[in-house]
Design the sequence.
DNA sequence: ACCTAAACCTGGGCGC
DNA sequence: TGCGCCCAGGTTTAGG
């Protein structure tokens, strides 16, 4: 799922549901997902929720936090007497909360992880620490231009590199490049001024649209309320192989860039 | 520094 | 229906 709009949708919903709840017990059914430290969380109460790129952070009042990465198929779903129960055969970790509520971590492919850190040390955690600036937050045009100018690697690979900028994944990278009419294979340092600025604007715009539709439920993603997002109904180019370009009508092609499926209108994206 | 393929896993879709 | 193959919102690692 799990690009910036999907994780942010989960974060903001959990802020509403989870804050104030006490963690009474944690049931880890697949050890590799949550390898250690769960005892630090038991008895703690949820204080706040943060997000760094695609990483969700849940802070407790006892000085500890836990980080969740959903990778490709992870789900984080809140359940209470009022919401549908999304426990399934893919539920690998259950946080039992007070007031008959639960937080489920589901993950078909088991690539996701949960990790405990002291709250004060979350930003120094190795994965978080390496993250680059984030669109809609602290990615300025100047910084974006520096990042692009620093390499001749294909621009799409840069957009997906979390150490260069964080939060953008394959869906939003494809759609933003289409929106900006830039070919994903273009060397990053070959973009002109107006292209650089157009691309940053497109990234911000597409992420905002993703947020508006509560993310893309192309496959496994669901919100913390257990519902589907709707951005998949508005894909600009992602996944539209064989269909017509929304701008010029040419056929959308699938190519591979940096080992990832990449969708382009060869007519529009130069 | 950069590139690729493979690895971590499982399920869905498609062609035959 | 079944089987084999390819694909998948991410990231890391091994090898060149």
Sequence:
């Amino acid at each position: 799922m799990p690009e910036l709009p999907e994780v942010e949708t989960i974060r903001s919903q959990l802020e509403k549901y989870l804050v104030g709840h006490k963690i009474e017990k944690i049931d880890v059914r697949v050890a590799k997902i949550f390898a250690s430290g769960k005892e630090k969380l038991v008895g703690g109460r949820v204080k706040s929720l943060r997000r760094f790129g695609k990483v969700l952070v849940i802070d407790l009042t006892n000085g500890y936090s836990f980080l969740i990465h959903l990778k490709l198929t992870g789900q984080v779903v809140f359940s209470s007497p009022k919401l549908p129960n999304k426990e399934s055969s893919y539920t690998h970790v259950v946080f039992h909360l007070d007031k008959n509520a639960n937080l489920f971590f589901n993950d078909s492919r088991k690539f996701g992880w949960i990790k405990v850190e002291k709250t004060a040390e979350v930003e120094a955690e190795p994965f978080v620490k390496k993250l680059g600036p984030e669109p809609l937050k602290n990615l300025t045009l100047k910084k974006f231009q520096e990042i692009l100018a620093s390499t001749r690697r294909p621009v799409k690979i840069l957009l997906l590199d979390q150490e260069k900028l964080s939060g953008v994944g394959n869906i939003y990278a494809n759609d933003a490049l289409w929106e900006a009419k830039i070919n994903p294979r273009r060397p990053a340092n070959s973009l002109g001024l107006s292209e650089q600025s157009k691309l940053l604007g497109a990234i911000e715009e597409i992420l905002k649209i993703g947020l508006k539709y509560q993310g893309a439920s192309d496959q496994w993603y669901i919100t913390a309320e257990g519902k589907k997002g709707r951005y998949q109904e508005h894909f600009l180019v992602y996944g539209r192989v064989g269909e017509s370009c929304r701008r010029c009508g040419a056929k959308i092609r699938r190519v591979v860039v940096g080992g990832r499926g990449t969708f382009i209108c060869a007519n529009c994206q130069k």
